[in-house]
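Long-time lurker, finally posting.

We've been working with DNA polymerase IV (Streptomyces chitinivorans) and I want a structural starting point before designing mutants. I don't trust myself to interpret raw outputs, so I'm hoping someone here can both generate the C-alpha cells and explain anything notable. Sequence follows.
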Amino acid sequence: MRGTPTVLHLDMDAFYAAVEQAAKPSLREKPVIVGGLGPRGVVATASYEARAFGVHSAMPMAQARRLCPNAAYLTPRFGLYRRVSEVVMGLLRELSPLVEPLSLDEAFVDLQAGGAAGETGRWSAAAARAVGERLRRDIRAATGLSGSVGLAGSKMLAKIASEQAKPDGLVVIPPGTERALLEPMPVRTLPGVGPATAQTLRRAGIATVGEIAEAGEAELVRLLGRAHGGALYAMARGIDERPVVAERDAKSVSVEDTFDTDLTDRARIQAEIARLADRCVARLRAAGRSGRTVVVKIRSYDFSTLTRSETLRGPTDDPAVVREAAARLVEGVDTTAGVRLLGVGVSGLADFTQEDLFAQAGTRAAGLLGADRPPSPAPPAAADGPAAGRETQEVRHWLPGLDIRHARYGPGWVQGSGLGRVTVRFEQPGSPPGRVRTFAVDDPELEPSEPLPPWGGQASEPAIRPNVMSSSEAGAAAPGTPSP
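Top reply, 14 upvotes:
Generated this for you. Predicted structure of DNA polymerase IV:
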C-alpha cells in the first residue's frame, strides 16, 4: 500500500451512450440505450437518463423497452467508440507511461511512474487531486465527454473511489481511511467476489467487508481455499499490492454473434462461421498477431454451450486457413436442434503475421506465393457485438443509430425504418438538433456513411482540442423526443 493516493482509476460515464449523445445533438439529455436491437439483444450501455427508469447494462432489450419505451434505441458503433477511446487513452499516457487499459472506457494509471508533482516536487493528496481534475477537464475538452476519477493508494481502492465519484466526479481516498471506508460495504465490492463466493460467505453469516476482516484468515481459507481466502482477507483490510501493468498480453482473439432465431440450416451455419472467422482474422491482423489454435463456440437453443479447437502446425493470420479449420470443427457437431450463438477465436498468439514470415524467409518462392496467389478479399470490418449490432452486413437495412448521407441533405443518422421507409435525422456533432425526413429504403440518394467523431468535422482526431458546448448550452438545445 502506498502512502499517497497515486493510483488513478478512470471510468468514462455511460460511455457508448454518452458518445451517441455527443455525436447526435437531438439526443442530449434524453434517454439513450445502446445494444442489440433484436429479440435476443441485450443492453450494452444506458444513459443516466435511461437508468432513472431502471435500465442497466446486460439487461434484456425487451425488458428495457418495457421500462423505458420512449428512449432512443441505437445500434452500437464500435469503430467510433474505439476512436474516442484512443483519444482518452492518449491523455492518460501523457500523465504516466504506466497505463493499464481494462476496456475501451476504463483504465488504471500509476501517477508515481510519471514523475514528481506539485510545488514541492513530491506527491501529495492535493497534488494527485489536481492531476485528476486536470485530466477530467482535458477529456471533456478533447471529446465532449465526462469521466469519473478515483485516486487511492491501490488499484482496488482507486476503483471503489471512481464508483463513488459517478457520474462526472472525483473522489480521493486518503491513506489511513481505508478500513473505515470498506467495513460497511457489501462483500461484492471486493475484486474476485462473484455470485458463488458471495453465496458461500452469506451462508457463513458474512455480508459486509468488515465481517470478512472479523472472520479472520483461517476461517476464510477454510471456506474458500488458501489462495482465494488469503487474498480476500488482505483486501478486506485494505491491502492490495497489485501493480499497474502497462501491457496486458492478450491470450486470444475471438468474436461471436447471437442470432434472433435459432439456426438449423447447415449451409447457413457454415456461412456464419466463415463470416465470423474473417472478422476474427481482421482483429488478429489489426493487433499485428497470429495464432496457432482455432476455437469455435456453439451455444444451442437450450443454452448448453460447447467448444471445439484445432491446433495448427504453426501460427497463422491467413483467413482461408482459419475459415477451413473452423468449418471442420463445426462439421463434427450436431446442430439439428438449433443454434443460438456461434463464435470463432484464435489462441496461442505470436507477435508476427503471415507476411512477416515471408519477409523473414527472403526467398523467391515466398515472393512468388505472394505474387501468384490472388489476394484474399479484405475481411469485412464489423462491430464486436451481437448480430443485431453488425454495421457492415446490416447497414443497408438502415438500423437505428447508424450513419447515413443524402446527396442533397448531407450527413445524418437513421432514426427508424419499416414498411419500406426509412426516417433520417439530419444533424452532426456540433450542429443544432436537425430536421427529420422520411425516404424510401431504396432511395438512390441515400448511402451508408462513416461516423463523424463527437468533436465534429472530419472522421479523424482533432489537431487541437476544440471548444465544446457547456452543459447549460447542451440543455438549451431545441426540444424534441427522439423516436426509438
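Before you design anything, note these points.
The first strand starts at residue 7 and ends at 12.
The first helix runs from residue 15 to 23.
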